[in-house]
Design a protein that fits this description.
The protein is built from 16 helices and three strands. By secondary structure, the protein is mostly helical. Strands 1-2-3 form a three-stranded antiparallel β-sheet. Helix 1 packs antiparallel against helix 8, helix 12 (241-253) packs parallel to helix 14 (292-308) and helix 13 (272-288) packs parallel to helix 15 (314-324). The longest helix is centred in the middle third of the chain and has 26 residues, at 119-144. The chain starts with 22 loop residues before the first strand and ends in a 23-residue tail after the last helix.
Length: 376
C-alpha cells in the first residue's frame, strides 16, 4: 500500500511552492523585490499606476505609456448596472469584503470571452478589474449604508478618484499622495495566503474572476488582510495612550494575538512597508494638528518590542492613516484587496502561461483497518 514519505510542514512555512519573476521577499537584506526593483524605493518615487504597469507589463512606463494606462483604466470605471443592483439586494449587515467577493464574481457574467486564457485577453481583464474594483468597493459600502452610489470622476487621478468615491470628498494633494503610496505598498507581496489561493485556483485553468473571488475570501480573515480593521478598532476602543497600553497589557496577559504585530516573513524586524506608513501618519498628524494616534501607535510599538519582541506590520500604521483620511473602517481590507488586484492579476497571468496543477498530499492521522459489520 502506498505511503507518503514527504516532510510535513504545518502551514507550508518556508516551503517553496512556485517559481516567479514577479516578486520576492529578501528577509536577509530586508528588501521587497518587484520585477527587479526595491518596493520601498519605488514607493518614494513612483505612483500606483507605475507599479501596475511594472507588474503587468514587466517594465516601468514612460510618460506616454502611463497616460495610455490611465486612460484605459479610467475607461473601465463604470460597472454594469445589474452588478449595482445585485449589491443593493444584499442584506444590510453584509461586510464590504463579502459584497466585494459577490461583485467580483458577478463580473464574470459580462465577459464574452471567458474561456480565453491568453496573455492579451487576461491583460485586458486585469485593466478592467483595476477600474471596476474601486467602484465595487466604494459603492457596495454606500448601498449597504442606504446611500446612493457615487459616480466616479475621470478628472481626478486614479487614487484621488478612489478616495473621493469612498469619502465623498476630493482629497488634497497631500492626502492623494499618501493614499496612493499606501496602494503601492499593498500592491504586491510575493506569496501570501490570498495570492497562493488565486494561483491554486488559476492552476485548474479557472478564470481570472474566479481566482480573484477566492483571493477576496482569503484576504478577509484577520490573520491576513482583516488585521488593519482590527488595529483601528483597538485604537478607537482605547482612545488614549495610557488606555491603549493597558489594553495591550490585558491582551498579552490573556495570551491573545494582537493584530498589527508580527509577520510570517518579518520575524525579527519591522515590516519595511510599515516604516513608510509611519512617516505618512506623521505627515497627516502635522497637517491636521492632531498626533494622538501617532502617540498611541508609537507607545504600542515600543511596548510590543519590549514585551514580545514583535514589530509592526503594514496594517498597524496603515489603519490610523486611513482613519485620518476619513475612510470608514470596514473599507480598510477592501482597499487592501483593491491595491493587490494588480499583483494578483500578474500572478494569475503567470500561472496560466506556465501552468502546473497544484495537488499536494496529506499526512493521514485517522483510523485504519475498520470494516463494516454486515451481520443482521
Amino acid at each position: 500500500m502506498e505511503k507518503t514519505t514527504a516532510q510535513f510542514v504545518p502551514g507550508l512555512e518556508g516551503v517553496v511552492a512556485i517559481e516567479t519573476e514577479i516578486s520576492f521577499l529578501d528577509t536577509i537584506e530586508s528588501e521587497i523585490v518587484l520585477k527587479g526593483y526595491d518596493l520601498i524605493e519605488l514607493s518614494k518615487t513612483k505612483s500606483y499606476l507605475d507599479i501596475v504597469h511594472l507588474l503587468l507589463e514587466g517594465v516601468l512606463p514612460n510618460a506616454a505609456e502611463k497616460a495610455a494606462l490611465e486612460e484605459s483604466v479610467k475607461g473601465n470605471y463604470e460597472i454594469p448596472d445589474a452588478v449595482l443592483q445585485i449589491l443593493q439586494l444584499l442584506p444590510k449587515k453584509t461586510h464590504p469584503m463579502d459584497a466585494l467577493r459577490t461583485g467580483v464574481s458577478a463580473l464574470a457574467g459580462y465577459d464574452g470571452n471567458l474561456l480565453d486564457r491568453g496573455h492579451e485577453t487576461n491583460l485586458n481583464r486585469a485593466l478592467q478589474l483595476l477600474g471596476h474594483v474601486p467602484n465595487i468597493v466604494a459603492n457596495s459600502y454606500h448601498l449597504l449604508q442606504g446611500e446612493k452610489p457615487v459616480k466616479p470622476r475621470k478628472d481626478l487621478s486614479y487614487s484621488a478618484n478612489f478616495l473621493y468615491m469612498m469619502t465623498g470628498k476630493a482629497p488634497s494633494e497631500m492626502e492623494e499622495k499618501i493614499f496612493d503610496r499606501s496602494l503601492v505598498l499593498y500592491s504586491e507581496h510575493e506569496l501570501p495566503n490570498s495570492t497562493f489561493t488565486a494561483r491554486v485556483i488559476a492552476s485548474t485553468l479557472s478564470d481570472l474572476y474566479g481566482a480573484l473571488t477566492g483571493a477576496v475570501a482569503s484576504l478577509k480573515g484577520h490573520l491576513h488582510g482583516g488585521a488593519n480593521e482590527a488595529v483601528m478598532e483597538m485604537l478607537n476602543e482605547a482612545g488614549t495612550v495610557e488606555k491603549f497600553e493597558s489594553l495591550l497589557s490585558a491582551k498579552l496577559a490573556k495570551k491573545e494575538k494582537i493584530m498589527g504585530f508580527g509577520h510570517r516573513v518579518y520575524m525579527k524586524k519591522m515590516d519595511p512597508r510599515a516604516l513608510i506608513m509611519k512617516e505618512a501618519l506623521k505627515e497627516l498628524s502635522r497637517e491636521q494638528g492632531d498626533d494622538l494616534l501617532l502617540q498611541m501607535c508609537e507607545a504600542g510599538e515600543k511596548m510590543m518590542a519590549q514585551e514580545k519582541g514583535l514589530y509592526p506590520n503594514l496594517d498597524y500604521y496603515a489603519a490610523p492613516v486611513y482613519w485620518m483620511l476619513g475612510i470608514p473602517i470596514s473599507l480598510y481590507t477592501p482597499i487592501f484587496f483593491s491595491s493587490r488586484t494588480a499583483g494578483l492579476c500578474a500572478h494569475v497571468m503567470e500561472q496560466h502561461e506556465n501552468n502546473r496543477l497544484f495537488r499536494p498530499r496529506v499526512r493521514y492521522t485517522g483510523l485504519r483497518g475498520l470494516h463494516v459489520n454486515e451481520t443482521i
